[in-house]
Amino acid sequence: MQSSDSKVIVVGSGSAGFTAALAAKEAGLDPIIIESTGKLGGSSAMSGGGAWIPNNPLMRRAGVFDSYEEARKYMDLTIGDVGPASSPERREAYLREGPQMVEWLQSLGMRLHYGKGYADYYPELPGGSPLGRLVEPEPFDLKKLGQWKDKLNISISIPVYTLDGVKIALSMRSLSTFLHTAYVIGIRTMGSMLLGKKLAGIGGALIGQLTFLALQRNIPIWLNTPLVELISEGGEIKGVIVEKEGKRTELRARAVILAAGGFPHNNEMRQKYHPHPITTDWTVAHKGNIGTAIQAGMAVGAATALMDDAWWGPCFIDSKGVSQFMIWERSFPYSIIVDKSGKRFMNESASYVDCGHWQYERNKEVPAIPAYLIFDQHHHRYYPLGVGLPGAEPKEYFESGMLTKANTLAELAQKIGVDPQGLEETVTRFNQFALNGKDEDFKRGDSAYDRIYSDPKVKPNPNLAPLTQPPFYSVKVWPGDLGTKGGLLTNEHAQVLREDGSIIKGLYAAGNTSASVMGHTYPGPGSTIGPAMVFGMLAGRHAATLE
Q1: Which of 152, 290, 297, 390 is the 20 to 30 Å CA partner of 185?
Q2: Residue 3's pLDDT band (cuts 50, 70, 90)
């Protein structure tokens, strides 16, 4: 058997796992990536692919001012005191090491882009940035991966950047957005295909580039190899037992880095830890996220934190029964979200995590799960619902119950079981707000973040427009999520801790396997992937210092 002195087992092939493996390799170790499913990338490959990295070098090159001090002020204000998961030391490590990580990845050959204009989620707070702190991958040619090109868990395969999405969603609203969409689909996508390329963007580009860097460095990747348990001897972790090709195999190592996501698809854990009602049906996270790594850590004495929270966000169930995360649908004008009483209870354009929290809070007072997105014919004609074309009404939308339609608000309310008088009063009040350009109840459209997903053609407030044009439509809104937030408690080196604060030697965690440094909130785009990659890097490097 080979010596385990230099071996590191990385459990999971998302952004945290790949970054950890690359860091360990650079530090002189021999990492192995084990992935429980047959595809690489987990939820990272399905995501927007961006990382929230304050004071990053791409910002500086673009002439956008930022600093550790401004970012720390902002993090402290938005996150507050949530305990050791977001300790001062972890915030310090994240903000200090994030910019260094970007430079390091670029030195390895990773091509990154500054998503200028994608604001922080609370940009008006002290330290917040209306221009944003988003670092995202440039589109990547998957054919560079050879036989691995079809082994990525990609949900969107066209070469887009994050801000392309809103322009595509507004493609029917102006010549400039139509031409931009034509460029993305025609020139960037079809043009690259004619040149023999298979370009991917956002999450696909992120995992594609990380996979390419790992293959260049001959880092072994084992697919269909689920973790069974950790090997613990004398209170230290000495390796893992995995299941490979139907057999249990022992892998000895100097360190194990758990980066296998959270537990969004583990119904037993969700019922135990999360607010009710809860189900695995509403999450958009990768189905391989079943909490195995968190449970393995708990079995060797690891502490946990934030287990009652998730990266919440409104979603709807499409005609095929698949959960779809709602971004523009709820934020664009000519729409509102109401509870069973027909009343609004949130700023529909706000951060999705906030919207999820608000929906659960509202449900304690008035039935709000599901809530209902109500919109008129203007909204339906101008903007897409999910990946459907604006104005599309295939019969399966109605047969599946995804979409409900009526000629009047009262009729719509009766069809969906909402109080008709409450809905009509709410729409009347909201319509006046829209005409005045000021949402007096929830301040929708006041923030630069709200206005990312808005329609500039609508005046005076691009997030507000009256619901006046029949027919009217409704879609059920559920408190979905991008993944869970709670996990193993770690320190600033990503080392896993026990309840008494002591370190479990040889065990690290990053990504959604660890309790989030972001606490209960979401400071900006990429607040999942940013910490996943930074603490993945720190874990891989720190493993080299173990004696």
Answers
A1: 152
A2: low
Q: Does the pLDDT at position 156 exceed 80?
A: no
pTM above 0.85, yes or no: yes
Domain boundaries, the chain: 7-157+198-225+485-543, 313-481
Work out the angle at residue 356's Cα, subtended by the Cα atoms of residues 355 and 362, and round it to the nearest 5 degrees: 85
Kindly state the average pLDDT of the residues 136-152: 96
Taken as a whole, the chain contains a residue count of: 547
So what's the architecture of 7-157+198-225+485-543 in CATH? Answer: 3-Layer(bba) Sandwich (3.50)
Per the DSSP assignment, residues forming a β-bridge with 114 are 135
**530-540 b/e (C-beta count within 10 Å ≥ 16 → b):** bbbbbbbbbbb
DSSP letters, 441-496, are: TT-TT-STTGGGGS-TTS-S-TT-----SSSEEEEEEEEEEEEE--EE-B-TT-EE
> DSSP assignment, residue 139?
P
What's the burial of 243, exposed, middle or buried (CB within 10 Å: 0-12/13-18/19+)? middle
**CB distance 60 to 98 below 8 Å:** no
* Token pair belonging to 117: 């204009």
Burial status of residue 114 (CB atoms within 10 A of its CB: 0-12, 13-18, 19 or more): buried
Distance CA 130, CA 123 (A): 5
Q: Which fold has domain 313-481?
A: Flavocytochrome C3; Chain A, domain 1 (3.90.700)
Tens digits of residue pLDDT in 193-251: 788 888 999 999 999 999 999 999 999 999 999 999 999 999 999 999 999 999 999 99
Question: Which token pair is 432?
Answer: 């006046």
